[in-house]
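Possible regression after last week's pipeline update?

I re-ran a chain I had predicted before the update to compare outputs. Posting the input and the new output here so someone can diff against the archived version. Not blocking, just want to make sure nothing changed silently.
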Amino acid sequence: MKKTIDDMKVKMEKTLDVLSEELKTLRAGRANPAIIAKVNVDYYGVPTPINQLAVVNVPEARTLTIQPWDVKTLKSIERAINEAEIGINPQNDGKIIRLVFPPLTEDRRKELSKDVSKMGENSKVAIRSIRRDAVEKLKAKKKTSEITEDDLKQGEKKIQDITDKFCKQIDSVMADKTKEIMEI
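New output (post-update):
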């Protein structure tokens, strides 16, 4: 029973980590290097992340600079950013690429808040699915007489408590991101 619950916790923690990573990629009006983290540049025929080709800095709250180690890659980086459709046009001055994040409109903030809610709800669905799988495993153990009826009830209660804890953490992460979006 302990192994089932420990496995469930690990899966739920991964779900929470995935949500946090997804929320980092949302453009919230502030410059955030995570927005371009998944953008790959064609570097001599190999898709390579930007952070392996250049230094990415945040000199100001709404500006992101990308300074490649090899100036020849500037055009490739600029093309990759345009193709990634992150909603920001790169400005290339021959040495550095600048991404200037425009301030968010009220409508865009509301739209982003809805996106945060959708991501959070999807994570909660995943958490509940993990809970269901864990309960089914316990019931299977009960059927094969590996655990008693009392163990099953205790296990179900423990699983529900852990599920509630993770759902609260998801709510907290969503509230923080929504607050960040609405404050800017």
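Follow-up from reviewer: compared with the archived run. The longest strand covers residues 54-60. Marking as no regression found.
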